[in-house]
Amino acid sequence: MKKIIITVIVASLLLGCKEMDLNPLSEGSTGNWYSDDTELSLSLNKLYDLNYWENWYGPYNTGWLYWHEAWSDDWMQRTFLGLMAAGTINGETDAVVRIWQTAYKCIANANSIIENIDRATEKISQDNMNRYLGDAMFVRAAQYGKLIFLFGDVPFFTETLDIDQAFSLGRTNKGQILEQIYADLDFAISHLPTSYSSNEFTHATKGAAMAMKARIALYMGDYSIARDAAKACIDLGVYSLYPDYGDFFGQKNTSETVFAIPRSVELGKYINIEQIVCRNCGGYSTVQPSWDLFCSFLCTDGLPIDESPLFNPHEPFKNRDPRCAQTIVEFGSVHLGVRYEPHPDSLKTFNYKTNAYMINNDSKGAALYASFNGLVWKKWINKEWYTGNRGDMPNIVIRYADVLLMYAEAKIELGEIDSSVLDAINKVRARAYGVVYTQTNDYPAVTTTDQSSLRKSLRIERRMEFAFEGGLETSLRYADLVRWRLAEKVLNKKIYGLLDVADLREKVVNPGLWFFPETPSIDEDGVADFESMYNKGLIKLNAIRVFEPSKHYLLPIPTKEILINDNLIQNSGY
Q1: What is the pairing mode between strands 66-67 and 56-57?
Q2: Staple partner for 260: which of 298, 315, 353, 394, CB 3.0–4.6 Å?
Q3: Beta-bridge mates of residue 356
């Protein structure tokens, strides 16, 4: 098999070389490209192709979309488990292959620019050359940062490889790669502009390089570096929190966006979001926010639902952190022009677009495949750009709220707890309440300075703030679970939902127990326990996640890479 694969690849390369020889010298090729500002700009633009930065996998414009949030406990997909959540991921899993291939393709393109930029020395200024180098180094660093977080030690190269070199490359210690990542990002920080003109293609900025350095350092446990990089980004004074949390996800670009890749329906760069849109609005609600996520939002007194006297399991949206109803559609609210009500006896609902009642396809009493747990996503579903299940919301890689919370987390882990830590967390929380963080009587401000308690508050804050958001290929929640080493606990939990409609009416609705029959308990890690309700027959088991700590903290190296390279050793357990 190995010989066959190598033969096919070599044959393809030879054929490609033969065809390349037929190209007129006036056309672009690696032999005469990168010679002026235009060619370099075009090459750099390619580094920001959505395929390299997306947090979902699968081709554009498809009907079936696999969001990487599905790897986390914030997600439910009826009774279905993806390969990651089911614990059956391997070296042939599409997501694994795609992550690996796109990262290395992007790295190779960045290396080519860095290696050949001297060709344009006489045609562009030194300042522009340094800016272009910083651009390419930012991209290379981000892609290597993703690889070492997900795979551990990986093949590492900073120049163009021939086929023999490629097939002999082994795995480099991630610590060595991290040194180059920091060096690349430091160069980018020194030479990238603070901002670009509005009509210029979106590239990384100085602040984006600082924020990316903070994220990678935090993920690697380099808390001092993460602290300093996040603080540098904050001190730029360029970024600020958008005043309305819910409305932020309906904006194309704001001062909160540190680094994002735009999408456009007109240009064919959109995603099909029918899986996450409710059925009354033309979607399928195939995937839902999990009850685990729903129960993680604090009450308005700052307490978890099992401790707060404000929580009513039969009216679970009331007295909750505002981000709860801005992430998940509240029962009885108008969503995309239709009243959302999953109650099994609400067989019709009002359509404000047609000014008439319609069959309530979001109720299990009227539609068998309505949301299996009664919840649907609201975050990112913006009526202004939602047309025919086409979503062109920007792919936000890093926003300012994350920079603030990364700074706070790094300081907490270093034991450097001071007012700046509390201010960073409280700025994010206060924004959700629509107030200034100094107005501590108007929201449940974090005041503890105990390291353990503050760590817990920080982690809960991240979950409430970043649900259904991604970084590089993974959701922020999944990355947090992995780096906090909570995945082995959380991702082995069962996934529950509503009973079948007859049992739901008999056991929950008729006794007056809708929506939650009782309040689930919340443990020290903010994880909800639904076992009591399940044991009483009041909820339904839909699926069981599987996460094996002996192997799943790292992804497997793609099988075909192992087959063609004797120097690549698979990660343990695969």
Answers
A1: antiparallel
A2: 394
A3: 351
Please answer whether residues 277 and 378 qualify as being in contact, where contact means their C-beta atoms are separated by less than 8 angstroms. Answer: no
Q: How far apart are CA 163 and CA 343, in angstroms?
A: 61
DSSP 160-204: ---HHHHHH--PBPHHHHHHHHHHHHHHHHHHS-S---TTS----
User: 206 in helix, strand or coil?
Assistant: helix
295 vs 493: CA distance, rounded Å: 14
Label the pairing between strands 521-522 and 528-529. antiparallel
Rounded-to-integer distance, Cα 112 and Cα 81, Å:
40
User: Residue 414 contacts by C-beta under 8 Å, 6 or more apart in sequence?
Assistant: 223, 224, 227
Residue 264: beta bridge partners? Answer: 269
Q: Are 437 and 430 contacting, i.e. CB atoms less than 8 angstroms apart?
A: yes
Would the pLDDT of 271 be above 60? yes
| Burial letters 216-253, b for 16+ CB under 10 A, else e | bbbbbebbebbbbbbbbbbebeebebbeebbebbbeee
Percentages helix, strand, coil for the chain, rounded to the nearest 5? Answer: 40, 10, 50
pLDDT in tens, 405-420: 999 999 999 999 999 9
Of 397, 442, 460, 451, the C-alpha closest to 421 is 451
Model's pTM, two decimal places? Answer: 0.93
Please report, rounded to a whole number, the percentage of residues in the chain having pLDDT higher than 70: 91
Beta strands in 278-333 (DSSP E): 288-289
**Across the chain, what does the average pLDDT equal?**
90
- Name the DSSP class of 499: P
Alpha helices by DSSP H, 22-79: 37-46
Go through the chain and tell me how many residues it has: 574
Residue 31 carries which side chain, given as an amino acid letter? G
Q: What percent of the chain has pLDDT over 90?
A: 78
Higher-confidence position of 283 and 31: 283
β-pair partners for 278? none
Q: How far apart are CA 132 and CA 112, in angstroms?
A: 12
Long-range pairs for 489-492: beta carbons < 8 A, 24 or more residues apart:
489/525, 489/527, 490/73, 490/292, 490/525, 490/527, 490/547, 491/72, 491/73, 491/85, 491/545, 491/546, 491/547, 491/552, 492/544, 492/545, 492/546, 492/547
Q: Are 406 and 218 in contact (CB under 8 A)?
A: yes
Token pair in block for residue 68? 């990487």
| Both tokens assigned to 560 | 């075909």
Contact (CB, 8 A) for 268 and 392 = no
- Give mean pLDDT, residues 26-55: 81
Q: Distance (Å, rounded) from C-alpha 41 to C-alpha 30?
A: 15
Q: Partners of 288 in the beta sheet?
A: 76
> Model confidence at 266, in pLDDT bands (50, 70, 90)?
confident
State how far the Cα of 570 lies from the Cα of 53, in Å rounded to an integer. Answer: 25
CA 61 to chain centre: 19
Residue type, position 417, single letter? I
